[in-house]
Amino acid sequence: MYTDLPADELAAYTSTQTRPEDFTDFWSETLAQARSHPLDLQVTAEPTVLDAIDVYDVQFAGWNGEPVRAWLRVPHGAAGPLPCVVEYVGYGGGRGEAHENLLWAGAGFAHLYMDTRGQGASWSRGATPDGAGSGGPQVPGVMTRGILDPQTYYYRRLFTDAVRAVQAARELTVVDPDRVAVTGISQGGGVALAVAGLCPDLRGAVLRVPFLSDFPRALQITDAYPYREVCDFLAVHRTEADRAQQTLRYFDGVNFAAQATVPALFRAGLMDTITPPSTVYAAYNAYAGPKQITAWPFNGHEGGGPEDDLAAVRFLREMTAAG
């Protein structure tokens, strides 16, 4: 059922979120710190049962030089240069198994599927810990990790990994470095939105039911997890609400959208309680670059499913066309 604004109000909705005065400096300094470490790109062929797609185990240095894993999938025997789609994973998931997630390589792209630090134990496996000594993958629960300070918040590390993944993709011999795009669903869409705001030279971004936008509204209108994790934390740490909200301003998709100029395709489900459609429209209406959106009236967090797959492939084929 509908639990959010009517469709006509969504089209005009804007967030009350504000942008910190040092937002640009914060992210410039964060990424400069990451780039001070060698990328240390490692690519190893991965044996699989697949005949039409070649898979490689990739590792690169992300936040603070820490190793991040990814799968690279390409059409069998491809020598490049190919357009590349860098994809980010939904909440609780990891990069999964080598033989999964074959759409983009099957459509002729190089596909770099980045693992998600400290997650990868809820619905697909991960292989990247959240920092040395932090142990292996864990079930969801990262929304409040370090939330009382932007410097320590979990998504500072994850967004930095995601930007470094674009850099890693451009270093791959099979990839045309001038034809790189990003995509993701839910948390992955939110990460892709942040990257679109931080990497202006991308060819395109497909943002499907993107999570992590319009925190002021999301925390008030949905009782679903993962947003509920923040509410649970603040129900105990009652006096820390202002500090937490101040931190979230640095990671809100609305603020990344306001500086993103990459052509973008948004998708939303009007019955979505996990990523309420108004939060998607908040990012869409703030988005500075060329954009289009489809909202599915009878779908929830799954969005358009296979229809969204087709739209994504067609959009990024157009955006990454040679020439």
Automatic annotation (TrEMBL):
Segments forming a coiled coil: none
UniProt xrefs under SUPFAM superfamilies: alpha/beta-Hydrolases
Highest taxon in the source lineage: Bacteria
Annotated residues for binding of substrate: Y91
Record: active site: S186, D272, H301
Pfam families documented for this protein: AXE1
Disordered: annotated span: 122-141
Domain Acetyl xylan esterase: 3-317
GO terms, biological process: polysaccharide metabolic process
A molecular-function term among this protein's GO annotations: carboxylic ester hydrolase activity
Protein name: Acetylxylan esterase
The organism of origin for this protein: Arthrobacter sunyaminii
